[in-house]
Write a structure and sequence with these properties.
Blueprint lengths: L4 E4 L5 E5 L3 E4 L7 E7 L8 E11 L13 E12 L11 H10 L3 E6 L9 E3 L11 E11 L14 E10 L10 E7 L6 E8 L3 E3 L4 E9 L4 E15 L5 E12 L7 E9 L13 E3 L26 E14 L10 E12 L10
Length: about 350
């Protein structure tokens, strides 16, 4: 393995090892989370060692916690005892676990978690510059800890007795996608008996992060007005469904094209836009794919809901749309003062391409 991820507890008794931190949701199955926990039993004092995997929604940083209130809600948690070994049968070691055991020696203990297919992928709400603490969003955390019981709310577990690593559940674009959407509108203005007709379409329903999106524009201006420019925006809508009906939209791209369509004229052209996170790096609350510390990421991938998934359990739903607006004016000195909009919207799916050799249904 080229890289091993390790986290040690404050007392030095535990060391958590993972061979990777990205685990893929293949729609009908999810990669198992496999790792090794190294346990030094010298300072356990009769206590046990457990390992847990928790998918949680964080809607406030730790420094906001007051009078015992937690700003973190567990969506799904799995725990089991790892030391002393309970004697239950375990799945055979994976090659990754065998490689990790070489690092740990005789004190290494393997663990494997199976993640249900109906759980959400990792999503982070981008903090503003200067914000401290962990970001809001949905994340997965592997934790090793020393305790008397696996989950006793009355037992206080010291921070020095825990070690934890944040991992990501990610989803890649499916192999098969549908045709791109198309929308059109005819708008008639006061004092005119003929309309402006606008038609817009994109070639496919799904585009990759960082990929240019060509938008085919057709305009038939049968009026005496003039189309002064075309404005294209891409909006991200974030629907926080877990704890409230909090739904908000942020514009991640806005471009104006100085295309003029005179009265009684037609126009046809392909305009290209590319929404990028780098152009929105200071927008607080923008949804991005689950961010790991000191690692780059991208705009959050669109949420794909399939049969059997509980929408309420998803925590955060992300969607995108493209808006095309024409600025239509009468022309002359008062043209811009009497300008009107003609607009359509197109749904957009943004996702990451699957790596070579990884099959996504």
């Amino acid at each position: 393995m080229s890289k091993i991820f390790k986290k040690t507890s404050g007392n030095g008794s535990l060391a958590l090892y993972l061979g990777r931190r990205d685990f893929v949701d293949h729609v009908d199955s999810v990669d198992d989370v496999d790792g090794v926990l190294k346990v030094d039993p010298a300072d356990l004092n009769g206590r046990k060692v457990f390992v847990s995997l928790a998918l949680a929604f964080r809607y406030g940083s730790d420094d906001l916690d007051v009078i015992g209130l937690s700003f973190r809600k567990d969506i799904w948690v799995k725990r089991f005892q790892i030391y002393p070994p309970p004697g239950d049968s375990k799945p055979a070691n994976t090659p990754m676990q065998d490689a990790l055991l070489k690092k740990c020696g005789d004190q290494g203990h393997t663990f494997t978690f199976k993640i249900p297919v109906n759980l959400p992928c990792s999503v982070t709400l981008q903090p503003a510059p200067g914000d401290t603490g962990k970001s809001c969003g949905v994340d997965l955390e592997v934790k090793g800890y020393i305790a008397n019981d696996a989950d006793n709310p009355d037992e206080k577990i010291e921070k020095k007795d825990t070690c934890r690593l944040i991992i990501r559940k990610i989803q890649f674009a499916p192999d098969k996608t549908g045709a791109g959407p198309k929308a059109d509108i005819s708008k008639q203005f006061m004092m005119t008996d003929k309309p402006v007709h606008l038609e817009a379409s994109i070639a496919k329903e799904l585009y990759y992060h960082g990929e240019a999106i060509p938008i085919k524009i057709k305009i038939n201006n049968e009026t005496s007005k003039v189309v002064k420019k075309i404005k294209v925006t891409v909006d991200q809508t974030t629907d926080v469904v877990l704890y409230s009906a909090d739904k908000y939209t942020k514009t991640i791209l806005s471009e104006e094209f100085g295309e003029t369509v005179n009265a009684n004229a037609t126009f046809e052209k392909e305009l290209s836009v590319t929404p990028l996170l780098v152009n929105n790096s200071e927008k607080r609350g923008l949804a991005v794919d689950g961010r790991l510390k000191d690692e780059d990421t991208n705009l959050a991938s669109s949420t794909l809901l399939h049969s059997g998934m509980d929408k309420e359990v998803q925590g955060i739903l992300v969607s995108y749309k493209i808006k095309i607006n024409l600025m239509v004016s009468r022309g002359g000195i008062l043209g811009d003062l009497t300008a009107s909009d003609v607009g359509v919207e197109l749904p957009l799916i943004l996702m990451s391409p699957k790596p070579a050799g990884d099959k996504v249904e």
